[in-house]
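User:
Hi there, any thoughts?
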Amino acid sequence: MKIAVLGKKNYLYWDSHVMDAFNKLGHDVKSFQINFRPFVIQTVRGLMKPFGKKKAQQLTDFLHAKHIVQELNHFKPDLIFITSAFFVSLEYYIELNKIVSKPIICAWDGDGGADCLAQSCYVDFIDILFESEYSYTMQNKLGFKNIVHLPFAANPTVHKVLNLERKNTIYFCGAWSLERDEVITSIDYPINLRGWNWKKLSHKSKFCNIKSGTVDIIEQVKDYNSNIAVLNKHQAINHIDALNMRTFEAPACGALLINDYRKELPYMYDLNKEVCVYHNKEDLNEIITHLKSSPKDFEKIRVSGYRRILNEHTYVHRMKKVIQYIKGTL
């Protein structure tokens, strides 16, 4: 199958993981990033900005979309797979639907857009929406033609065991939020915090080490390999039960994952046998107290979580499901 992967290149490398998986499955794949534009189109945007940022954005998105479609008409894809579904502007979807080979248009949402009325304009342009939040697929409030649950995953080519010495520290990477503040400030254990806005932390213990800014994927994989455990706390924005990327990427690096409970979690892991799970601060502190006194007790959980990822939760597994669904439905 000829597949074009369209995405927004950023520190998540989401489109790259998808492309790697399709390549491993033996498909002919080409990649396109909407934020890598020809110089001429960038120049037009600069000239248009005095007339309004929104108009400049819409015009240059339209021009870039037409440029991509010209390339795709030569490539003649059977499938276009779009990551960060609603972070790709409508102008691209409109033009992609004009491709001569009439490819299937699929998009993968991981940000709760399938439940947001503002995204209803995308409905007519997407043949299949893959959604990380299961409950949204059941409700399908916006009326997508096809909507399918597809959780995040890990890419073992990138997320892997490096056999580094693990420090006696817990690691958390992500942006500060109120719900995360409540959890992290309750921990009486050395913790390495990475990401944005941690200066807002309501209480900084002597055990807390903060490094601000975006963490590159290579550095993050090293971090996952260098700490005794990785803490996860989902944000409440736009999601009910969906699992973030960290839920899969940390165990793929051989790390012990300490994850907040989500309803989708038992469908991905054997709880407290493959990942440690907490429902509240009391649960979390019980896990950490045990980790302090008997870290070796968690070795079996760590190894089991790693094996579960390789057996069931890689991007190759997810893209196999995508292809199977397409062949069985359309």
About this structure: The radius of gyration is 21 Å. The chain has a mean pLDDT of 93. The chain has eleven helices and twelve strands.
